[in-house]
Each structure stands twice: as structure tokens, then as C-alpha cells.
Amino acid sequence: MPKLKTISPLIKLFSLKNKNIIIIGGTGKMGISFSKILSEAGARVFLLDINLNKKLIKNPKIIFIKCDVTNESQTKIIINKIIKKYKKINVMIYNVYSKPKNYYKKFENYDFSTWKKVLDTNLSGAFTVSQIMIKHFKKKKIPGNLIFVLSTYGIVGPDLGIYKGLNAKKNIYGGNFSLTTPAAYTSSKSALLGLMKYIASTNGKDNIRANSLTPGGVFDGQEKRFVKNYNKKVPLKRMANFDDYDGAILFLSSDASSYMTGSNLIVDGGWTAW
């Protein structure tokens, strides 16, 4: 008789076969990179985003769904439809990053309406989705896995010196202001870390895990002066590429991290090491 092929323990450890994963804020460059590596590991991936561009990737295991995470009722309906059709969701990745109009204004002139929009998306949306997912995990009695994408500026204060002398016209993200890190961003990401730890510490008994991934700055065609300033601050002397986080998200999504909860995985080229 021919020998049966066996799956190596290493491959099995990182396999996502028969797993359904939703990525909230999934059609940005990082979300797309995540979806590729996760689907390659065997998962069916749902990309939920207010902005859809299905031409970004053609893969039958990657499904695009339009969703405004600040709309609580819409978000509940969409996620519950996924659950009804595909029976379960195993992993949720919250990868949202909102940049409304006037996002880059200086702190002393920052509009409260802009502040609120950022927190509604970056933080309150995570609260809504987490509630939905925890109810689902408990109802189905399945191991649950929640992953929140943070920022180095959610754990340390920003060094605004790296933005000195930048040109507003060269801000690739648009608007009338030069590139900077607003307080709304750092506050929302820091609070998201607290939410993750709360979920981890209160739901472990139900085999529900929660962790976060803290990426450093990613090269996205930013102004040369900024890139030069940034690189001086990083021990590895470069910004990240989007796919530099593929290994980390695969680890957090798979059984390789099965005994990990309440932890923040920092992948920042050493930015926070000094």
C-alpha cells in the first residue's frame, strides 16, 4: 500500500485550513497583504471596508464586503449574514485607520468633530465588532481569536521632530496640512490596547483570545525628508514594507499563538527599543 502523506507539525501549527477570518478595514495596503498570506495558509478571508476596490486582488478565497463600521446596525447585519452563510467566524482582525478632513491639523486647532470621527472609527467600531464576535464565539462554543492592529504611537508618544520641515503639498494622504501624527490617532490606538487587554482578561475562561499587533511606520511613498528623518530613529535604519507584517499576522491568527492572550506583539524595526 502507498504511504499516506502526513502534514508536518510545523505546517499544521500555522495552517488556517477551514478557518473563516474577517478583516475590518481590509482593503488598505496592509489589509490586502494580510488577506494574501492568510488565504495562502488556507483561510477564507472576508474584507470589510467602507471603500471597496475588488480589482485589488482576484482570489476566490478572498471576499469583499462593503461595511461602515461606525454604523452599528449595518455592521451587525453584515457580520451575522456571514455567520449565517458560512456557519462560523474564527478570527477577527481590526485594522481600521480613519483620516477624515482636517485630520492633520495641529492639536491646538483640532476640530472636535474630526476628533470624534477618528475615535468613532478607530475605537468605537472595535467595541461594536468585539461585542458581536464574543457573542458569536460563546453561542457557537468555539475558540475565538480577536486581533487589533495598533501603532507604536499607541504605546509611546510621537516624536514630532521627524515631521519638521515637511511640505503640505507633498503629503501623499491629501488635505491642506503637512504629514504629522494627530492626538486623535495616538489616543484611539492607546485606548484600543486597553480594550484588547480587557477582552483578554475577561473572556479567557470561554477560550476566547485577544491580542494586538503593533507595527512601525510603513513606507508608502512618503516625502523623502520624512523617510530620512524616520530612518534615523530606527535601529534597522529603514521603514517597514507592508509584507514585513505577514509573519506576525499569520502567527497571531493561527494555533501557533494558542497560549497567547492579552499580549501586544511589537514589530517596529526597534523604534520602541530606545
Characterization of the model:
The chain is built from 7 helices and 7 strands, in the order H-E-H-E-E-H-E-H-E-H-E-H-H-E. The relative contact order is 0.15. Helices cover 36% and strands 14% of the residues. The protein has a 7-stranded parallel β-sheet, with helices on both faces. The protein has a single domain, classed as 3-Layer(aba) Sandwich (Rossmann fold). It has helices at residues 9-14, 29-40, 72-86, 112-140, 183-203, 224-232, 246-253; strands at 20-24, 44-49, 62-66, 91-94, 144-149, 208-215, 264-267. The protein is an alpha/beta fold and 274 residues long.
Question: Summarize this, please?
Answer:
The chain is of the alpha/beta class and 274 residues long.
